């Protein structure tokens, strides 16, 4: 199995499901629905949904039961990108090779589209079938904690406050574990929780997710220096311009690359208990570290 | 029972619960937690939580079981105020007699504090005890639908798009039923759902909530013209300045006052099936129409 082809194929399934869930463009208020669909359906690797689906499959869950939760994770990710790109935040013009949401729909609509996507994520969670209400509620809690002030939003705040300041490795760790890591971890855990994982399975998958979450962000930081704008679809070098806290800034480029490899190794080791059944998740760990976009 | 004293007394219970739930100011990231607490604990009538608690009591629910949901409703209301006040939206400087969130903490933090409060509302919903997981999930669905693109956010978008345009009474109705009405309706319904209301009870309470929601907004529009800035705690006349769609602008001031009275009458009639047990909700309907702030 070629992992890039696999991701491509899976992302089509997820895109179809997202398209089905999002409000149609011809219903009121049209501008809002257009704005929501513009960002969500602009592409992207759909890593979070894929991680949720694969963690679920590893535990014995059914893809169709997990798909609403997979979509909810992608909606949260997309709302955070729309708000991060706003002029008051990172002020970015380009995302996935297209103008950012506020460049097309204006700031007010971009703020509201983000709000609506975040809210809709929780509505979709209530559409999960064939799973007990107790398990769905646990997954809702996991999603909310990972996305809010103790998770993603907290990391984004720390990231903004760190701009232009010297920060230590502890604070960098906090930022990355929260800003990117929290939702990636929740993706894996939600897939596992909804499929009835036991404590040992959940613990192993949590370690896996924490390591790939950290690795993902280290590689993101490296790509901001070495990446190809054509492939990444957003501005390169913007972290440096903004004096952002990054792994290469604190540890240097070579050491950062070594650290990324180590996270990948630790992520894969954590899945030993599953044996060969974990093949896709193992390949996803390699892919996350070796990707060039 | 004096209804103003009752609201005052209940709001203290709710404020204490909100204070307990919100992250402390001395934990990381401090700026975010300060910003969240600043807006939520700035006061306000706490109408939505009170409606949820009273609807629950009418059906036989226990206050302590409903309190987390009551707080969630208030958090959603507060996030929407923070985002509505932003420069890209209504650009307001004053809220509840204090500088708006972005005036104190800056735009980026105000956007993120709103995001965190919205997310936290759903986390709190998962803390509801002594109610079946199925009922809690129904309440989560109700909250998400009322707050998102098919509810409050949809109404806010339509309101912004209507600025400076001639709109008809249908569109005004859409804006008000969604922007303010949806969350007020959800407040009453969530209290009822979590207390196990039957179809007849839920239908009656839904009609009550729809009518007071509409009445609430008509009175808000009237207060923007006739209100006392000292009492309201926000700028007066700002609807006119912004060429906003309002009831007085379409129907005139006197006709708007008559319409508000009629909504109150219909709201109270809907509760006939409950007899005297509905006393507090009946007085709340009067209060909403007769308030001067």
From TrEMBL, chains A, B:
One BP annotation, GO: terpenoid biosynthetic process
Name of the molecule in the record: Farnesyl diphosphate synthase
Species for this entry: Orenia marismortui
PROSITE patterns per UniProt: POLYPRENYL_SYNTHASE_1, POLYPRENYL_SYNTHASE_2
Obligatory cofactor(s): Mg(2+)
Keyword set includes Isomerase: no
Catalyzed chemical reaction(s): isopentenyl diphosphate + (2E)-geranyl diphosphate = (2E,6E)-farnesyl diphosphate + diphosphate
Similarity comment: Belongs to the FPP/GGPP synthase family.
Record keywords, A-Z: Isoprene biosynthesis, Magnesium, Metal-binding, Transferase
UniProt keyword Zinc, yes or no: no
EC number(s) stated in the UniProt entry for this protein: 2.5.1.10
GO MF annotations in UniProt: (2E,6E)-farnesyl diphosphate synthase activity; metal ion binding
Organism placement in taxonomy: Bacteria, Bacillati, Bacillota, Clostridia, Halanaerobiales
């Amino acid at each position: 199995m070629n992992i890039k082809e696999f991701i491509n194929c899976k992302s089509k399934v997820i895109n179809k499901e997202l398209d089905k869930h999002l409000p149609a463009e011809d219903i009121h208020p049209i501008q809002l629905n257009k704005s929501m669909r513009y960002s969500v359906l602009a592409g992207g690797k759909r890593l979070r949904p894929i991680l949720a689906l694969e963690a679920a499959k590893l535990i014995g869950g059914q893809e169709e039961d997990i798909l609403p939760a997979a979509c909810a994770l992608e909606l949260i990710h997309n709302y955070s990108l729309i708000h991060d790109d706003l002029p008051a935040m990172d002020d970015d013009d380009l995302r996935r090779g297209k103008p950012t949401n506020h460049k097309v729909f204006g700031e007010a609509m971009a703020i509201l589209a983000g709000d609506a996507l975040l809210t809709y994520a929780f509505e979709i969670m209530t559409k999960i079938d064939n799973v007990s209400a107790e398990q769905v509620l646990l997954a809702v809690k996991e999603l909310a904690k990972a996305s809010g002030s103790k998770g993603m939003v907290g990391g984004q705040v720390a990231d903004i406050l760190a701009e232009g300041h010297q920060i230590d490795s502890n604070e960098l760790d906090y930022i990355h574990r929260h800003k990117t890591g929290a939702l990636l971890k929740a993706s894996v855990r939600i897939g596992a929780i909804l499929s009835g994982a036991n404590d040992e399975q959940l613990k192993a998958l949590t370690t896996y997710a924490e390591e790939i979450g950290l690795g993902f962000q280290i590689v993101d930081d490296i790509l901001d220096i070495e990446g190809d704008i054509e492939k990444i679809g957003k501005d390169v070098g913007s972290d440096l311009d903004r004096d952002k806290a990054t792994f290469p800034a604190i540890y240097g480029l070579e050491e950062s690359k070594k650290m990324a490899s180590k996270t990948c190794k630790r992520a894969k080791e954590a899945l030993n208990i599953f044996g060969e059944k974990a093949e896709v998740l193992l390949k996803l760990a390699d892919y996350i570290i070796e990707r060039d976009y």
